[in-house]
Amino acid sequence: MALPPEPWPTGVAEQLEPLVRRVLAPNPSPYTYTGTQTYIVGAGDRVAVIDPGPADQAHIDAIMAAVGDAEIAALMCTHTHRDHSPAAAPIAAMTGAPVVGCAPLVLDTDRPRADEAFDPTYEPDRVLEDGEAMSGPGWTLRAIHTPGHTSNHLCFALEESGALFTGDHVMGWSTSVVIPPDGDMGLYMKSLEKLQEREDTIYYSAHGEPITKPRQLVRGMIGHRRQRENQILRLLGEQARPIPAFIPDMYKGLDPRLHKAAEMSVEAHLLDLERRGMVARSEDIWQTI
């Protein structure tokens, strides 16, 4: 999706609803859209900061200006990609705020990525299990375990308003990338189905605009992934093939710069199908069973 025309509201605290403000980080890219969106939850003297973002001083200053005289009750991270969690450590050092949320995860790999690498500085004071909550005056944020994009991914439900902070699991501008070995398509689909069963009224993702018809979007995302899976099975029914050979048929007219990302998505689907006993491989050649 093309970027919207500038100027973007980078560094400005935007009020989205009575308990939620948004601050956009200055890190636009093909994988972050206009940048990572940090959310400040709470209207009283204790607030939570969700996905503090990259360790960029201008962004940290913008967060602190938005927080003002309030105490930061928790720096809450949905996952540990480097566009989401690195600012937690310096803000914690400045304020004494605890880092709360996802489990630490650092994946060492020399494979090309279609998203940000992992943050080695992330050290949570408390890891939230599925269903655990943090609260402050007038707000409660409950952790929803949503592995798939990464194995440690969490969403946070704001119980007072029906909002869900979805990190990179469901985004307002693009489908999430699922990159093996940590990204898992089977878990990603189960996490989408988990959200589909919920009754959240609006999604605030880390990238892109608020999602005002969340269940409709999730239903479409599940359908899109099932369509990709069926394409893979159909193509393997015609001929066994290596992963690069799927791309011309599945992604017609794709920008060559995005071929590696497409290959990793196909690989994630194939690994899921392999676990389900539907495909097999011999070295780099995949075939149906």
UniProtKB/TrEMBL annotation:
Xref: SUPFAM superfamilies: Metallo-hydrolase/oxidoreductase
Taxonomic superkingdom: Bacteria
SMART domains: Lactamase_B (SM00849)
Pfam families recorded: Lactamase_B, WHD_BLACT
InterPro entries attached to this UniProt entry: LACTB2_WH, Metallo-B-lactamas, RibonucZ/Hydroxyglut_hydro, Sec-metab_biosynth-thioest, WH-like_DNA-bd_sf
Record's protein name: Metallo-beta-lactamase family protein
Annotated ranges, domain Metallo-beta-lactamase: 35-207
